[in-house]
Each structure stands twice: as C-alpha cells, then as structure tokens.
Specification:
Number of strands: 0
Distance between the termini: 22 Å
Strand content: under 5%
Helix content: over 70%
Largest sheet: none
Number of domains: 1
Order of helices and strands: HHHH
Mean pLDDT: 91
Number of helices: 4
Length: 110
C-alpha cells in the first residue's frame, strides 16, 4: 500500500507542478489572461507542500519524483497539447519509472 500511496502522491505533485508552469506559459505565449498567474502560483505552492509530505529524505524523494514527473509530462503533452508520442517517448518514460522504483522501493541498508 505504501507504494501505491507514494506513486499517487508523486502523480498529484507532478500535476501541480505542470499546471503551475503551464498557466503562466498560457499568459506569456498564448496571450491569455494575466489572472492565470494566480492559480498558477497556488498550484506551485501546492507542489512544494506536496513534496514535503514524503517521510524520506529530500534527495532521494526529489530524484525519484523526477521519474514520475517525466511520465506525467509526457501524458500531459499527449492529452492536453495533442502531441503524438513516439515509441522512444514510451521507452524513455518506462526507464524513468524504473529508476523511480529502484530509488524509492529498493531495500534500504541500515
């Protein structure tokens, strides 16, 4: 159950980070309302808070989170931006997830 909760928290954290960066992008590059900066800032604050919920040391958590972030970012590109992903995107995402699993769930020496 620990693994499921950890991965779910990583996915939610990645979404908060991506949304927090995507909304200012829409304002800067797509000429959308400056008011998008408000939910963007709130989303980035949520992202930082969510990272603090992990019981492990920050270094390994941030490293493992990166693997999940890569996969969520690829899914965002596909679902939100309509970018067609390649086989190499899928392989890269799988390698990133494998790295996350090794960092987070490998036996810890005492």
């Amino acid at each position: 159950m620990f693994e499921v909760k950890t991965i779910a928290l990583f996915v939610i954290t990645a979404l908060a980070e991506i949304i927090g960066c995507y909304l200012p992008y829409l304002w800067l590059k797509e000429d959308k309302s400056i008011l998008l900066l408000i939910p963007g800032a709130l989303s980035l604050a949520l992202f930082a808070w969510l990272l603090s919920l992990h019981p492990d040391a920050a270094g390994p958590v941030y490293a493992a989170y990166g693997g999940v972030y890569i996969c969520v970012a690829l899914l965002w590109l596909w679902v939100v931006d309509g970018v067609k992903l390649t086989m190499w995107d899928g392989i890269g995402g799988a390698v990133a997830l494998l790295g996350m699993a090794i960092i987070m769930f490998a036996p810890k020496s005492v």
